[in-house]
Input
Amino acid sequence: MNTPTLRASALPVPLQDVFGPASASLAQTQSVWVEVEDGAGNIGYGEACPRDYLTRESLSGALAYIQGAAGEWCARIRDLDSLREWVTAHGEVIDAHPAAWSAVELAMLDLFARRAGVSVESLLGLPRLAGVYTYTAALGDGSSATFEAALARYVAAGFTEYKIRLGGRGAHDRAKVAALRAAGIAPECVRADASHLFRNARDAVRYLDRLDYPFAALEEPVPARDLDGLAAVARACDCAIVLDPRRARAPSVDLVRGVEWIVHLRVATHGGILRCMDLAASAAAEGQGVIVGAQVGETSLLSRAALTVAHSCRPHLKGQEGAFGLHLLARDTVSGSLTFGASGRLDARAVPQGPGFGFVRVVRPSPL
Output
């Protein structure tokens, strides 16, 4: 078997402001694009979004890491088994470069599945994608006018699940929940991203009481390692708590019994599909739900990878983000752009059915 070759490039992703959660001033984001070719005409594609605030990676650093390790990967990783072995043996390395590695892993999985003539799900021992996936309307912390305009578009499109970002400015956040009420959106359909806004549970509960809006779930209102504080907020506000498993130790049995915990996973920030599937399985075993998230500027390739993770934990899925496709991107990188439709729904029958992730690349990224 020929030794594969690996190429990595910067991928500028131009944005348009249609449904997106990003600020309207954000013109484009940068991603990493990886191609792995086996010499027999099979090419696997991978993508990731290194973000300093999420993964402590820069675009240039991610590319440099991939360049430096490409030779080792191509020599040692030849199939799914050797890929799993590398992931198991290099947890700390992946923790340091989660986005960069996830792009490589996606390309490897795509290549191995294409070579076998099967889907990535089949390669991983999962059943075929089926059914309808419902995506969450994501509303950022922009101006009140921006928030209300985006909310109106989501309502007109028939969305049933919403996520808002709290900014910690009382009047501004109260205006957001007033807009939700005016739109007739039930609180049980809304979760709030309050990531680390408050130093402790007392401050969080006091602020949330003033909002007077019973969110279904809150994402890390206090630091993720303060599990007692998170549990106190959950009980005081009668809501679930969404956690990033990278930043929190597994909750104790008592906390799990007393609070609904939901694990928030992103392929490009948690080190790829294999690790996300393992984290989702562990969460399910502990009785926790799973949200499969996304990052601003993902193309359809990452949306497709996230579907694999969501599919693997479907009975425990509490929410799904992403699939903005051409609602947010000025152009996509692949044929068959995955874009949610009416009511935020994406039918699995709309997913490309070819081997691997099923896509054909249509836009060449910028060279290194």
The first helix runs from residue 52 to 55. Confidence is low (pLDDT under 50) at residues 250-255. The chain has 13 helices and 13 strands. Residues 56 and 228 are 27 Å apart (CA to CA).
